Amino acid sequence: MHRVDINARDLRILDPLLSYPSTILGRERAIVLNLEVLLRDPSDENVIPVVEELRRRLAPSSSAQHDGKDNLSGQHDAEAAEEDESPFEFRALEVTLEAICSFLDARTTELETNAYPALDDLTSKISSHNLDKVRKLKSGMTRLTARVQKVRDELEQLLDDDDDMADLYLSRKLAGASSPVSGSGGPNWFPASPTIGSKISRASRASAATIHGNENDVEELEMLLEAYFMQIDGTLNKLTTLREYIDDTEDYINIQLDNHRNQLIQLELFLSSGTVCLSLYSLVAGVFGMNIPYTWNDGHGYVFKWVVIVSGLFCAFMFVTIVAYARHKGLVGS
């Protein structure tokens, strides 16, 4: 903390147990970065590729400093160092942003690989298993979208503020602070790190003319941030497309359920109409089935046949009339 001149409040935003938004802060001698993917343990399998990439990106100048016996190798490393004039902090920031964007993009690709087949299965067959599977995928997509959105918003906010981007020029600030004192004074706050010292020394010489000309020139950092902003924005567009596909699938399923519900309502209408007609037929049978003496019932056995036939025809006609009326009003399908 004393070497890089930051306080405990800046380190607190890196604590995963505390709820802090995505942040990129420029301090006098350090850049504090929290973009949803916390890189703490160098031996972690997710962090090892980032460490290896940092070693690869920052290797030329350290090789030129420590390998003085091999002239050819030293000359090659020196030429490579001269070709890449990006400050040390920008190369480290680029590796970090690349790791974060690649991590989120990989999670998005994995989610797409699992989501689209699950949605197709749900479309073809609506079951509790498929619904639960899609529910879990949708929950994961919501959490991932929130993480990607936070990173995108932080990069966008940083791109909109030139002063915040200027604060990330550590080499420029170091060169500006050391140049009035002495021309040979090197960075004294990384004495045990020749790699970092050589990087900052080279970046300080490369940006010395820029310091006195325009301290707010952030074109190099702006180009770097815009590249990864476009990448994270593309990841967010993938998630947005996936969300729209899920919404379309849900709409399609709701239409299917509504269609089945309408079919059940039609069946219920037919059954209710038939029940009414049969109830009327049963009423006629019940009236004539009472044990009450009728004078006209004696010697008129043929009346029973006509009562049964007329009642049946009337109930059937009534059922057909109800169904025809329902079709005419559009209550049932044709």
UniProtKB/TrEMBL annotation:
One of its GO terms (cellular component) is membrane. Gene3D superfamilies: 2.40.128.330, Magnesium transport protein CorA, transmembrane region (1.20.58.340). The keyword Magnesium applies. It holds the Pfam family MRS2-like. GO terms for molecular function: magnesium ion transmembrane transporter activity. Residues 59-85 are annotated as: Disordered. Magnesium transporter that may mediate the influx of magnesium. The chain crosses the membrane at residues 269-290, 302-326. This is Magnesium transporter. Signal peptide: none annotated. It is found in: Membrane. Keywords: Coiled coil, Ion transport, Magnesium, Membrane, Transmembrane, Transmembrane helix, Transport. Residues 134-161 form a coiled coil. It is a multi-pass membrane protein. Belongs to the CorA metal ion transporter (MIT) (TC 1.A.35.5) family. It comes from Triticum urartu.
